[in-house]
Design brief:
Number of strands: 12
Shape: globular
CATH topology of the largest domain: Barnase, Chain D
Strand content: 15-25%
Largest sheet: 7 strands, parallel
CATH architecture of the largest domain: 2-Layer Sandwich
Distance between the termini: 55 Å
CATH class of the largest domain: Alpha Beta
Number of domains: 2
Order of helices and strands: EHEHEHEHEHHEEHHEHEHEHEHHE
Length: 324
């Protein structure tokens, strides 16, 4: 019997590659994207190499009303694209996503499993750990769009959770660790930037993230001076990051950060890497990679505005803080 996995982000797609290899057998992969960019298409094409049947749906709605009709359109698309409605294993990650809930409400499966959506899975202050609170209007929208499942149903039904955060409490107790380095070993990437630009064995980079009004948290040119004094060599931007904070060379690649580093360690296994960031969750995703030092940059404004995010980072003894 066929298995089905639902992905909403490129990180989930990377984890999916590992799950497919772990479970084996026939797979259908549904990719739901809100931000149709090159990274999504890169991992979409790579997932097709796994011999899975891969389907891609771009969510274009921006309002709640438009989203309601988009879910109806999605359900019709799902039924027309996926002729099966019974599966052996169903794996999902974004357990509050209405499109994920629509799939779970539309098909039958013998076993439900979950996997990490990112740091929300291990942040006890995230929406995944709060009491379920569905407004009357949302309940009506779910009813008329045929959504019968909710986040708590998924947590109760999930028999196993795949995680990239070993040692952390997760949404269910029974977990199995996924090693993201396994994908890098499976897929040898001919990344020109990796081969041509990273020539030394001591590399430092700043890991960006999409923070609204980030400039309001930076005092004068303190950040630029810090980058200059530390001789940080590269900037790895987030796909949704709209403003480059400092004038250093950007790393342009279709690989997401976790995969980029894994490929780097294949090409240059002895490299020593220092990662600077504010509080990017991707830093937690790679904290167990070898030869990696992670430094979280902080000032009074950032500490006050994003206390929960910083607290989560500093739960790991491998991540150090530095004021700028």
């Amino acid at each position: 019997m066929t298995n089905i996995i639902v992905c909403v982000t490129p990180l989930q797609m990377l984890i999916t590659e590992n799950i497919i290899r772990k479970i084996g057998g026939n797979f259908i992969v549904i990719i739901i994207t809100y931000d149709d960019n090159a990274k999504y298409h890169f991992y979409y094409e790579r997932l097709k190499e796994s011999l899975a049947q891969v389907k891609y749906f771009h969510v274009k709605s921006n309002t709640k009303v438009a989203r309601f009709f988009n879910i109806l359109k999605f359900k019709s698309w799902f039924e027309s694209e996926i002729k099966l409605n019974k599966f052996q294993i169903c794996c999902v990650s974004s357990i509050e996503n209405p499109f994920v809930l629509a799939i779970l409400s539309s098909c039958k499966y013998r076993e439900l499993r979950t996997f990490d959506d990112g740091t929300a899975n291990i942040n006890c202050n995230s929406v995944y750990y709060r009491p379920l609170n569905i407004s009357f209007l949302e309940r009506m929208a779910r009813y008329f769009s045929g959504i019968r499942m909710n986040r708590d149903d998924i947590r109760q039904q999930s028999s196993l959770h795949y995680t990239i955060y070993p040692g952390y409490k997760n949404i269910i107790d029974r977990v199995e660790t996924i090693n993201l380095l396994d994908s890098a070993k499976e897929y040898k990437i001919d990344d020109g930037f990796l081969k041509e630009n990273l020539n030394n064995n001591n590399i430092s980079l700043f890991l960006g993230q999409p923070i609204k009004d980030i400039r309001s948290y930076l005092v004068g040119d303190s950040f630029e001076l810090f980058v200059k004094n530390r001789n940080i060599q590269y900037y790895f931007p987030h796909p949704r990051e709209r403003e480059k904070l400092v004038d250093i060379p950007s790393i342009q690649t279709d690989l997401i950060f976790e995969d980029f580093l894994a490929q780097l360690f294949i090409i240059k296994p002895s490299v020593d890497l220092v990662i600077y960031t504010f509080f990017s969750g991707a830093a937690l995703n790679v904290m167990n990679y070898h030869n990696v030092k992670i430094i979280s940059l902080i000032n009074d404004g950032l500490e006050e505005g994003f206390k929960d995010s910083y607290d989560l980072l500093f739960e790991s003894k491998r991540i150090k803080k530095e004021y700028f």
